[in-house]
Amino acid sequence: MAGLLDEIGGKLAERWVSLLALPGSLFLGTAWAAHVLGGGRPFDVGRLLREVERYADWTDVHGGAGLFLALVAALLLAVVPGLAVQALARAVQVLWLGPWPGGAGERLVRRRRARRARADAEVAAHLRNHERDGDEGELAAARAAEARRDRIAPLPPARPTRMGDRMHALEHRVGAYYAVPFTAVWPRLWLAATEADRGEIRTAAGAFEASTRLCGWGLLYTALACVTGWWPALVAGAVVVLAAWWLGRERLFALADLVDAVVDLRLRSVARAVGIPVPPGPVAPATWRELDLVLRRRR
Predict the structure, then answer these.
(1) Which residues, 6+ apart, have CB-to-CB distance to 220 below 8 Å?
(2) What's the pLDDT tens digit per position in 209-238?
(3) How many domains is the chain built from?
(4) Residues 225 and 147 both lie in one domain
(5) Alpha carbon distance, N-terminus to C-terminus of the chain
(6) Is the distance from CB of 127 to CB of 77 less than 8 angstroms?
(7) Residues 6+ apart with CB under 8 A from 255
(8) Would you write out the chain's pLDDT as a tens digit for each of its 299 residues?
(9) In a designed cystine with 164, which of 31, 97, 125, 200 is the match (CB 3.0 to 4.6 A)?
(10) How far apart are CA 197 and CA 262, in angstroms?
(11) Spatial separation of the C-alpha atoms in residues 125 and 85, rounded to whole Å
(12) Do 129 and 285 contact (CB within 8 A), yes or no?
């Protein structure tokens, strides 16, 4: 997944300054207020105004040159939290998608597998009751249990998080249905896709990456609260992290659906491009196995 986002999100990196400078300036202003106020009187506006007046007196003493240097220094400093957010965003991506290093991820996967197994057993029990008694209520209960099971994971969990399992389910579906590894066929699919396809995926991937950056800002504000004791930053950081997680999940699912669609719509074009005849209509599994052999020889 990281390779996929790196490939289709390359153009976003060219705009990182414009994306991070403004929120970086806002963070610097918040950090200054948190430093001045601390945890004692978090909303002491009068104290902030006195500090502003003190800085205004400093600029009066040093003139326009001092003000210019102060502005340049502020702009340069605004980039620093942006760089920190870039690093945090990569860590958030690993946290959301997995796999996690160490044993914590494996333990969470085992717990999620056990939860899904219990949900699957509930589905099977309702279906058995429906087959035995013909009770439509049992069929409705089975469908509701299926929905609860699929909210845990569409397949037996292989990642610590639901987002990670959604991408794993995508790779598993392509491998199981088409007998072609997703990682092998995706670069060819990207080239075979239309510009409209690539534009939709770039937009979806960019939205997901924006969610990881938003979570990074939330973590940065949380860290600011821990350092300065200014609790409003902790509240703001927690709200931002939760919002980023919710947005990231929805956007990741939308991205996975788009990639799924591109696989279904463009895989025939990849097969024809490498010299495998694909007739219209249903495709025999042997055709996809032949495509897999061709891709393996070219790796």
Answers:
(1) 27, 81, 84, 85, 88, 237
(2) 999 999 999 999 999 999 998 999 999 999
(3) 2
(4) no
(5) 19
(6) no
(7) 201, 204, 205, 207, 208
(8) 555 555 555 555 555 556 667 788 889 888 888 888 887 777 777 777 777 777 666 566 555 665 667 666 667 777 888 889 989 999 999 999 988 887 888 999 999 999 999 999 999 999 998 888 888 888 899 999 999 988 888 888 999 999 999 999 999 999 888 888 898 889 999 999 999 999 999 999 999 999 999 999 999 999 999 999 899 999 999 999 999 999 999 999 999 999 999 999 999 988 888 888 887 777 778 888 888 888 877 65
(9) 97
(10) 7
(11) 48
(12) no
Specify the residue for token string 């994971």. 153
Amino acid at the residue 239: V
Q: Which residues contact 86 (CB under 8 A, 6 or more apart)?
A: 16, 20, 213, 216
- Structural domain that includes position 106: 101-159
Same domain, 110 and 90: no
Is residue 207 located within the same domain as residue 266? yes
Do residues 137 and 285 both lie within one domain? no
Cα separation values, 20 from 8, 28, 30, Å: 20, 12, 15
